[in-house]
Design goal:
single chain; mainly alpha; 2 domains; four-stranded mixed beta sheet; 25 helices; globular
Length: about 500
């Protein structure tokens, strides 16, 4: 293996292939349909750009930073409504920032440039499948968190002002996505376990920096912001109730363990190896770095105590699993143990490449991704041609909430409620009345249209019985063929769309 690293020509070839693979994944993401979550948060961002104020004149279940960063970029570059590729570019810039931070942290953990570059490359590979290829909060949140860790490792004995900046950056992770709060404790661990004689002063400066943006948000938005983002009612209890499952403490622990064991893209073998080698890690004085990784994996897995979550929730755990690689590769062990380590890493790489390139590039991007993307905009135009300016639309289907974005519609309720709530929540007639009664239209797609749009793939398609009952009582069908727009108290009119 040492001879391989010393072969400059081979390294250049491997490096070029690595860059090419990243470019393929990035470019391929532009030929994929708009994710439901992406559409929901983009709609909210566009409303903020129009002048709505989160937690005051509009309800928002998320922290504000991602939205305001993108609104600022929208104004700076004069980006028109619906320019989805622009925000996808911004997303990938965040991902590149994550990779750069991982490269630096890996070097601080004792690895050379080649291993550190390998870790950075692997980040793009293994995060691509769990929705790391689309516009969500996790990657930007991870960026701020990893940046805070890397700058702490660089500035840990520097001026107090720099420690304050580290705290501010860690807070930015939380203000991008609630679960980014985990970086607060991880940086604290690094400070407390350092050998600095002034580490408790550093703790104070760090916490001061962390509190500053939180106090600013509290001053500007009041307590509404923290009530909205911390107590938004979207959790395991509600979703289990919808599915007829009783939520217990035991079931939540089982969910945490299940997601911990099955970290997306089979990165878990690296974690198992690190745990097995913990005695050697402690003996060779690498316990501090190893524990921050294991704490990061275990700590972020606690998300599943509160939410069912999807693939993207595991994104927080992946960087810390990857940072175990430079730790175990730099251990002083015999050739047999080293061979086993490389075998596990090789298996991880192979499975990551399979998930990213076969499941994403081959099965989705090259076959039906672009068709689904175009279909989303076609359906959006059909709806937009019917709905008049100022009219609102309620979409009780998790799988088609992208219509809010492609049709430039304003929802009649909180996007998180209608995007996530209607599907998983147990909606009563009273709740349906509350959500639906103030809207002009209720949108419904036919099963045939959904099947065609998603090319036979599984899709989220929720239509609660209580909402259906309410709609049948007060709404009439005003549009047929693929789309049914139920219009409040209007005569039934059937119109065929060309």
């Amino acid at each position: 293996m040492k001879k391989v690293f010393e072969n400059k020509y081979l390294l250049w070839i491997v490096g070029a292939l690595g860059i090419l693979s990243i470019l393929v994944l990035i470019i391929g993401s532009f030929f994929n349909r708009i994710d439901v979550d992406s559409a929901i948060i983009l709609v909210e961002m566009e409303r903020i750009a129009e002048g709505y104020i989160p937690y005051k004149t509009m309800h928002l279940n998320y922290p504000p930073l991602w939205f305001y960063v993108n609104v600022a970029l929208k104004w700076l570059f004069h980006i028109p409504y619906g320019c989805y590729p622009f925000y996808l570019v911004v997303h990938w810039l965040y991902a590149i920032g994550c990779a750069i931070s991982l490269f630096y942290i890996s070097k601080r953990f004792g690895a050379n440039k080649i291993i550190s570059a390998f870790v950075a490359w692997l980040f793009f590979i293994v995060t691509h499948w769990p929705q790391g290829n689309t516009i969500l909060f996790e990657i930007p949140s991870i960026f701020w968190g990893l940046l805070s860790i890397s700058l702490f490792l660089k500035w840990r004995y520097s001026h107090p002002a720099l420690q304050i900046i580290v705290g501010i950056l860690a807070a930015c992770s939380f203000l991008t996505k609630q679960f980014g709060a985990g970086f607060l404790l991880l940086v604290l661990w690094l400070i407390i376990t350092s050998t600095s004689s002034s580490k408790w002063k550093q703790v104070g400066y760090y916490l001061l920096g962390y509190s500053l943006p939180l106090l600013f948000c509290l001053t500007y938005w009041g307590t509404n912001i923290y009530q909205s983002i911390l107590f938004n009612g979207y959790g395991t209890d509600v979703m289990d109730a919808y599915r007829g499952i009783e939520t217990t403490f035991t079931s939540k622990i089982e969910r945490i363990w299940g997601n911990l064991v099955h970290i997306v893209n089979r990165i878990t073998p690296v974690v198992y190896v690190a745990i097995i080698l913990l005695p050697i890690i402690f003996k060779q004085n690498k316990w501090r770095e190893a524990l921050v990784c294991l704490f990061g994996i275990g700590g972020f897995s606690l998300q599943y105590f509160f939410v069912h979550g999807g693939h993207h929730y595991s994104l927080y755990m992946i960087p810390f699993a990857l940072l175990l690689i430079p730790i175990i590769l730099t251990l002083n062990v015999n050739k047999y143990v080293r061979g086993a380590i490389w075998a596990v890493i090789g298996m991880t790489v192979a499975l990551g490449i399979y998930s990213a390139f076969y499941n994403r590039v081959w099965k989705i991007y090259l076959h039906n991704g672009k068709k689904q993307y175009d279909g989303q905009w076609v359906m959006g135009k059909k709806v937009a041609d019917i709905v008049q300016e100022g009219e609102t639309v309620f979409i009780p289907h998790g799988g088609i909430c992208y219509i809010y974005y492609t049709a430039n519609l304003y929802p009649s309720s909180c996007m998180a409620d209608i995007g996530y709530g209607v599907g998983p929540m147990e909606v009563t007639i009273a709740t349906a009345s509350k959500w639906v009664s103030n809207t002009d239209y209720v949108l419904h797609f036919t099963d045939e249209m959904m099947y065609d749009l998603y090319q036979g793939q599984d899709y989220e398609y929720f239509y609660n019985d209580s909402i259906q009952q309410y709609v049948n009582q007060f709404y009439s069908d005003t549009l047929a063929k693929d789309i049914v727009l139920h219009h409040l108290n209007k005569p039934k009119i059937a119109m065929e769309l060309q």
